[in-house]
Design brief:
The chain is an alpha/beta fold and 302 residues long. It has a single domain, classed as UDP-N-acetylmuramoyl-L-alanine:D-glutamate ligase (3-Layer(aba) Sandwich). 37% of the residues lie in helices and 25% in strands. The strands form 2 sheets. It has a 9-stranded mixed β-sheet with strand order 5-4-1-8-9-10-11-12-13, sandwiched between helices. Strands 3-2-6-7 form a 4-stranded mixed β-sheet. A hairpin with a 5-residue loop joins strand 11 and strand 12. Helix 6 crosses helix 7 and helix 9 crosses helix 11. The longest helix has 18 residues. The structure holds adenosine monophosphate. The site of adenosine monophosphate (AMP) has 17 residues, from strand 2 and helix 8.
Amino acid sequence: MAELLVVGSVALDSIRTPFGEAADVLGGSATYFAYAASFFTQVRLVAVVGADFPGSHLDLLARRRVDLAGLQVSSGETFRWAGEYGYDLNEAKTVDTRLGVFADFRPALPSHFRTTPFLFLANIDPELQLDVLRKVERPKLIALDTMNFWIQGKREALQRVLAEVDAVVINDTEARMLAQEPNLIKAARAILGYGPKTVVVKRGEYGALMATDGRFFFAPAFPLESVFDPTGAGDTFAGGFMGCLARAGTMDEASFRRAIVYGSVMASFTVEDFSLSRLLRLEASEIEERYRGFREMMHFEH
Ligand code: AMP
């Protein structure tokens, strides 16, 4: 089992879906990622929160043995994101993004974080992703996520960080936007051209696809009858994906495929409730049970 480092947002989210709403609840790309990955391996987190951030939220991560030595608490406001969804839960509409303490955050990495073998640059300012990349010894595997906000606002920095990562884990709308290409297969190929050897495209209820040099792998999403709030599904997917790879410590094609399925398993829990609520009640045995469900669902005879 290898350690896994994540840098990304720790946030307070205000969400509206057709099924309900919640204000100032625990969210953030690094939060979902770290919580999900903690079921697989030892996670180290780099982020910043404001003085207004409830300590009880940090206890939730600490209880999962997430190493919070890289989490700074600054005077000022925690990152806040407000989003809403229509009946098509695949498409989040950003209502408001307030960077707060992230606006002038400079990550300080504790010395034991610098040699972490697996690194995930979760959705956050690509300048911060680069900053963390500069402060670590080259990990065995570096993966990155991003979103429209940064593709539109910081494309140049994003292109620089893309050139240095091994894998990109990104949603379909953002893959199209990043590559400026409507066809998803062409978009994935274009992103491979930016540097990474692997591109994983998350497609919400349509599952995920992985493109490597000349090869594709597709996994469906778990067929759920009730999807309550898709927020964090992508980050949870990434947490399951990277957590699974770090636990195995191997990076062959079979390991990547298994990791995609574990990513899909983890995401399928997150969407069942608001914020991290479903993850907080999740048992390791449920993860394995749903993984077996995936194997059965995807099996067919030659
Ligand atoms: P997703 O997995 O794509 O649904 O990500 C949702 C999470 O991303 C929310 O909990 C937000 O706090 C966080 N988020 C939204 N916008 C940004 C942004 N521009 N940078 C970093 N994190 C963000």
